């Protein structure tokens, strides 16, 4: 830190300013004084004079430009943070979608397994149904055969049976059946 001291005389007052500078700055002041053939005091007075009397419009323009750049940087930072937030949300959504996809794939695999099992059972049931149809056809043929055979036997047996009671009383010649 620098300190200020006022030294006065009859011609006016002078301000003495002290400032601490690092080694590098001190070395640069020495080099500038040597190259100009001057001393440190004069180099510092010239620098202060230049700073105080320079065109401020250019400095103000640079300051405005700096402030605009900072504002733009802040805006970009906010946009970056928003993009990161959206990216993180998209990642979470993607994870959810992947999880849902895995669940659906699992359900699809189960459905395929069930379909394959059901298809196998359908094949067996169709074979069994075909077997039962053939068996029923054979039984139907057998029943038809037996009906025909019974019909033939009935025709042969009917004349050999005794007459009913009414017929026996009306036709006395059936008496031998009694």
Give a quick rundown of the structure.
By secondary structure, this protein is mainly α. It is about 75% helix and about 5% strand. The chain has a domain at about 5-55.
Q: Which features would summarize this protein structure in a list?
A:
mainly alpha, disordered N terminus, 4 helices
Q: Which stretches are poorly predicted, pLDDT < 50 over at least 5 residues?
A: 1-10
Biggest sheet layout? 2 strands, antiparallel
**Class from secondary-structure proportions:** mainly alpha
Overall pLDDT confidence = 84
Order of helices and strands: EEHHHH
Widest sheet: strand order? 1-2
Indicate the proportion of strand residues.
Answer: 5-15%
Q: How many whole angstroms does the radius of gyration measure?
A: 61 Å
Shape field: rod-shaped
Which percent bin holds the helix content?
Answer: over 70%
Assembly category? single chain
The DSSP helix count reads 4
List how many beta strands DSSP finds.
2
Protein model, in words:
- This protein has 178 residues and is mainly alpha-helical.
- The protein contains four helices and two strands; from the N terminus they run ββαααα.
- Helix 1 (23-36) crosses helix 2 (40-53).
- Strands 1-2 form a two-stranded antiparallel sheet.
- The longest helix is centred in the middle third of the chain and has 102 residues, at 56-157.
- A hairpin with a 2-residue loop joins strand 1 and strand 2 (12-17).
- Mean pLDDT is 84; it is low at 1-10.
- The chain is 76% helix and 7% strand.
- The chain has a domain at 4-54.
């Amino acid at each position: 830190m620098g300190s200020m001291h006022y030294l006065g005389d009859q011609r006016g007052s002078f301000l003495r300013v002290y400032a601490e500078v690092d080694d590098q700055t001190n070395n640069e002041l020495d080099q500038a004084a040597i190259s100009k053939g001057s001393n440190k005091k004069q180099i510092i007075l010239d620098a202060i004079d230049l700073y105080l009397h320079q065109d401020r419009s250019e400095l103000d323009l640079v300051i405005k430009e700096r402030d605009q750049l900072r504002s733009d940087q802040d805006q970009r930072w906010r946009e970056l943070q928003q993009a990161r937030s959206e990216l993180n949300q998209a990642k979470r959504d993607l994870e959810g979608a992947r999880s849902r996809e895995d669940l659906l794939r699992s359900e699809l695999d189960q459905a395929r397994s069930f379909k394959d099992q059901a298809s196998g059972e359908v094949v067996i049931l169709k074979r069994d149904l075909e077997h039962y149809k053939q068996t029923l056809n054979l039984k139907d043929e057998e029943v038809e055969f037996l009906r025909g055979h019974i019909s033939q036997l009935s025709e042969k047996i009917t004349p050999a049976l005794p007459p009913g009671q009414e017929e026996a009383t009306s036709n006395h010649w059936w008496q031998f059946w009694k």
